[in-house]
Amino acid sequence: MDSNIDRKNDFITRVFDRASKEVKTIVLPESNDNRVIRAATWALRDGIANIIMIGDEEKVSERAKKMRVDISDIVFVDPLKHPKFNEYKDLLVELRSHKGMTPEKAEEILRNDYLTYGIMMVKAGDADGMVAGACHATADTLRPALQILRTAPGVEMVSGFFIMCVPDCDMGEKGTFVFGDCGLNQDPDSNELAIIAKTSADSFKSLVGAQPKVAMLSHSTKGSAKHVLVDKVKEAVNIAHDKYPGLILDGELQLDAAIVPEVAESKAPDSFVAGNANVLIFPNLDAGNIGYKLVQRLGKADAYGPLLQGLSKPVNDLSRGCNVSDVEGVIAITAVQAQIAEPR
Question: Which residues neighbour 175 within 8 Å (Cβ) at sequence distance 6 or greater?
Fold first, then answer.
């Protein structure tokens, strides 16, 4: 029998508990991936989500038999047979006609692109969120989400973040951090960095449940280095303070000054964030991607993401190097995001 997710961090345990109290429906378009199939069965058994998989049920059943997993409780949607196909086609034409979408093109896309079909299910309200990316590039997952779902009201841009849970760590929020942006925006300018900082802080508060303390990271701490890259981060700090006066944020800070109290005392003794940061904002995607993978691989951290923030409905990406527990964890997080996003 499959084992359930290893509950080795408090964060994911709390997320599972929250997801199970108000069960949402999550669509998984990658029915050809064994990790996703297995994670779907785990999610159902743990009661964290109802699952829809897009694909041919007979073909998936054959894979499942070889894997010795029970998929009988999974709902399958085959676009070629789905009674709502024409409804989704008409909706896609309506949403994208200004970009040249025709009924013929919409039909071709929906017959062949399961990721777009999943997004249409979320858009139409037939699913509460979507998780994909185990066998697709981030761009393939994000493109239809950005085109069809668009941003939430009042949100200026969509960005990506990881929730990192570091074992045996007393830094951050008992070893839990939000890293942003590590999955979407390649070289954000100062204003975009400020927006990423605010939305990442909001994500930290809503998912982790603690007070966010945001560090704007750089290779410089408080003017220790002079460079245009440092200037970009400094300007982001100024913009964030002006736009979001209630946000606990400081920078520019080197990573050690941001999270290690002893280093903070030396490098930034007057900072109200240094040494205590739990939300780390990286200056570009190179730094963010490298940073999260270092912590994941060398620090043995659980890495959930890249998660998306700013969309009108939750859609989350997976690293193509994910394992089954990673997939189930992101399903649970997506379910909780759907609870948060639901109008009250």
Answer: 9, 165, 166, 167, 168, 169
Nearest to 244 by CA among 281, 270, 285: 281
The token duo for 299 is 């620090």
What number of CA atoms fall less than 13 Å from residue 272's CA on the CB side?
A: 6
Amino acid, res. 52: I
All domains of the chain in start order, with CATH: 10-150+318-341 (3.40.50.10950), 159-298 (3.40.50.10750)
* Residue 286 tokens, joined: 């190179």
Structural contact between residues 26 and 129, judged by C-beta atoms closer than 8 angstroms: yes
Helices (H), 189-323: 190-208, 228-243, 255-259, 261-267, 285-298
CA distances for 84 relative to 117, 162, 212, angstroms: 11, 34, 42
**What does the block give as tokens for 234?**
């400094």
Q: Which residue has the tokens 């940061």?
A: 277
User: What tens digit of pLDDT does each residue of 97-133 get?
Assistant: 998 999 999 999 999 999 999 999 999 999 999 999 8
Q: Cα–Cα distance between 268 and 262 in angstroms, integer?
A: 10
The pLDDT tens digits of the residues spanning 249-304 come to 998 999 999 999 999 999 999 999 999 999 999 999 999 999 999 999 999 999 88
Task: Answer whether 157's CB lies under 8 Å from 195's CB.
Answer: yes
Supply the mean pLDDT for the chain.
91
Q: Which residues pair with 251 in a beta bridge?
A: 216
Residue 60 CB: number of other CB atoms within 10 A? 20
Q: What's the alpha-carbon Rg for the chain, to the nearest Å?
A: 21
Residue 74 DSSP symbol: -
- What per-residue confidence (pLDDT) applies to 319? 80
In the structure encoding, which two tokens stand for residue 123, read together?
A: 């858009």
Contact 192, 157 (CB under 8 A): yes
Q: Please name which of 63, 13, 12 lies closest in space to residue 36, comparing C-alpha atoms.
A: 63
